[in-house]
Amino acid sequence: MKQVLIIDEAPLLREYLKSKLSEQGIAVTVAINGLDGISKTRTVMPDLIILDYHLTRISTLEVLKEIKQNPNTAKIPIIITAQKMDQKKIIELVSYNVKKVFTKPVKIDALLETISEMLDVPIDIDNTPSIVEAHVNDDVLFIEIAEGLNREKLELLRYKISELIALYEIRVPKVILLLSNMKLSYADMPNLEKLFEVILSASRAPQRYIRVLTNDEFTRRFIEGRKDLANIEVSKDLFSALEGLLSEFTGEYELGEKKIELAGERVLQAEAGPEGEAVHLKFQTEKKRALTSIEESRDFLQGLKIAVVDDDPIIQQLIKTTFEKGGAMVYAYSDGQEFMEALKKETFDLIFLDLLMPRIDGFGVLQRLKSADLGIPVIVLSAVSQRNTVIKAFQAGSKSYLIKPLKPLDIITKTLEILRPGV
User: How many separate domains does the chain show?
Assistant: First the structure.
C-alpha cells in the first residue's frame, strides 16, 4: 500500500486529501506542523510528501533540509502548496527533490492527477464542470454553485463550511444557497442529496435558517418532495431570502453585538444543536491559535499588494497599519477615478472599496472591474447597513462586505477568508 504524508497546519486541504486518498486505498498520515512532519517522515517513510510552504513553528526550508540530510528520506518526492511564490524560490526548491509546486487556491483535479502519476495509483476524479464558492457576511453563509454539481467540490465544500463557521465563531448559522446556470435531472439526484447532506451536517444550521435560490424546476421539486428537507424554503430572489432569514432577528441587515447575542441565545434555547463534534472544535482551536495576533499572519501576508479605495484618511491609515505590520504593501486612493487610473499600471491581490465616494463611487468601480473581467477579489467597506445596499453590492460583483467601524482583526479575518485556499 502506498503511503502519503501531508504536512499542513490549515485543515481545509489537508482533511479533504486525507479523506479522498484514503477512499482510493492510499494510506495517509497527517502532520499538523513542521516538527511533527519531520518526526513522521522518519517513522512512516512515505512514498510521497505533500508540504505546505507556510508553516509557523518551524519553516518549510528547515523541514526540507532535515528530509534531504537523512539518506533514508532524501529521495522521497515532494509536492509543495503555497499561497504565493516567485520563480527564484521555486528554483531554490528543486534541490530538495520538490517535483511540483501548486499555488493556492489549488486546482484539485490537477493536484490529484499529479499524486496519481507520482504514486502510479489510479485515482477516480469527478470532472463535471462546476463553480463553487462560499463566504460569510454578517453571520450569513453564502454558498454559490453554478454550471453543475461536482462531487469532489461538494466534498471540499464540507470542510470549507466548517472552516468558515469556526473562523467567524458563528453559533447559529444562516445559509443562503444560490444555484445558477444549472438544469438538473433525475441523474443528478445523488449529487443533490450529497449537496444538502454536506450543508446540513457541516453547518449544523436548522432547516428553517436555510434558503435556496434557484430557477431550476427539478431542484425545486426535489426539495419540496423530500420530508427530510421539509423546512428548507426555496426563495424567489435574494432580497426575499435575506428578509426571511433576518426578519426574525431585526429589520436591519446589520445587527448590534447585543442583539446578535440575545437572538442567538433565544434560538439555541429553542433548538440546541449537538455539541462536541471533534472536527468543529479542532477547526476553531486552530483558527484561534493562528489569529491571536496580526504578526502571526506575517508569512501569509508577506508580499501581498492591497488597494484601499476610500475617501476617509482614517480608514486608509487603519488598513495600511494593519497590513504593513504583516509585510503586505498597501496603496491608498481617495476616490474611484484615482484608483481606476492607477489600475492601468498596477495589479493587486485584493481591493478594499468604500461605496460612497466623490467622482466615481464604489458601485461604479465594481461595474468597471466586472466589465474588465480582472478577477480581483473585492471587500466592500461601508457605514451603510440596509439590506438593499448589501444586495446591490453583491449584484455588482462584491463577494464580501465589512461594516464600519473596522477592527484590525476583523480585517485580517476577512482577508484570510477571501485569499486562503478556497473551494
Answer: 3
Are 337 and 357 a contacting pair, CB within 8 Å?
no
Which range in 121-125, 128-132, 261-265 is most confidently predicted, on average pLDDT?
A: 121-125
Residue 248, domain member (yes or no): yes
Q: Which of 187, 130, 190 is closest to 157 using CA atoms?
A: 130
Question: The C-alpha cell of 292 is what?
Answer: 491571536
Residue 317 and residue 205 share a domain: no
Query: Where does a domain end: 221, 254, 280?
Result: 280
pTM greater than the 0.70 cutoff: no
Alpha helices, H only, 103-188: 108-119, 151-167
84 and 205 housed in the same domain: no
> What value does the mean pLDDT take over residues 250-268?
36
Spatial distance between the Cα atoms of 357 and 377, rounded to a whole number of angstroms: 20
CA atoms of 414 and 58, how far apart (whole Å): 26
Which of the pair, 198 or 215, is modelled with greater confidence? Answer: 198
Amino acid type, 385: S
Confidence of residue 299 (pLDDT cuts 50, 70, 90): low
Question: What is d(CA 102, CA 110) in angstroms, rounded to the nearest whole number?
Answer: 9
